[in-house]
Amino acid sequence: METIEDALPADIAQNIALLKEDLDLKIPPKKLEKNLLIATWNIRGFGDITRKWKSAINDSPKRDFHSLVCIAEIIKRFDVIAIQEVKSNLKGLRDVLKVLGNDWSLILTDVNQGDVGNGERMAYLFDTRRVNLSGLACELVVPDEWTQTIPKGMLNKQFVRSPYAVSFRSQNQTFILVTLHILYGKTSTDRITELKGIAKWLSSWADDINAYHQNLITLGDFNIDERGDLLNNTFISEGMYIPPALQNSKVTRSIFDETKYYDQIAWFQDSNKKNNISLEFITGGNYDFLNTTLINRNLTKQAMSFMMSDHFPLWAEFKL
């Protein structure tokens, strides 16, 4: 029986060598005590796998060991990565951890129950040689009082997938990551309601924690359709800031549509447009894996979305 820890088949080993070369060119290297690499990735339906190096046409799920090794190779380029759409079945995630090795760890939520929660978890994977937990881990919920103080209907229910906040420490810097996956809903109005509520929650929290010189960064799948649209403006109306490097039209999020602006890495600015984080942003981007993963398998984009994802990972580099 094949396992993820078996020696790579020759053609897959060649694929991974190509992938590593491309990642070397496009993702900044980890520099000891110099930088911090944070990423977010919605990995489509990240749950069960077919325990083969190459899944067949009739296999379900389509994701196999080949795709998991490619996913792990991308993840290991970052110090900490927030992952959305982790399912109740953790086989795929556990096998990725085996590939990453003993220096990697994870922290994740339980499954979001209910139909709209889609059986998903929020997770962080992190390189313990560079990043460690620093104490805080919590899901964000709506205070009852807020339902009386903001527009009707804006927060009359909990978030569908509770945003997940975890604090980390790297060298002498402590930072809090808040990952979320906004409900897509039937119309953009459904997303505006939840996104406005989350932005307000984060704004209130940021005003408090920044008194203690913490760094609050929010990242994940915001399901924003386009740059500058109403959803985008709703998000930034509470003071959220997206660095220009991640607003560049070349930094795409969806493998199907370059105009989509789903995934974000952002933080707050004060009234003078000064960043409310002490980390210095250097650069950021996405990683387009379409021409470097699962090569020679003749996959359509639709098939690739189930093997890898329908989202590209989004990343940011900070100076320590």
Automatic annotation (TrEMBL):
The keyword Lyase does not apply. GO terms for molecular function: endonuclease activity; hydrolase activity. Gene3D superfamilies: Endonuclease/exonuclease/phosphatase. It holds the Pfam family Exo_endo_phos. InterPro entries: Endo/exonu/phosph_ase_sf (IPR036691), Endo/exonuclease/phosphatase (IPR005135). CDD domains: MnuA_DNase1-like. Residues 39-234 form the Endonuclease/exonuclease/phosphatase domain. Keywords: Endonuclease, Hydrolase, Nuclease. The keyword Nuclease applies. This is Endonuclease/exonuclease/phosphatase family metal-dependent hydrolase. It comes from Flavobacterium granuli.
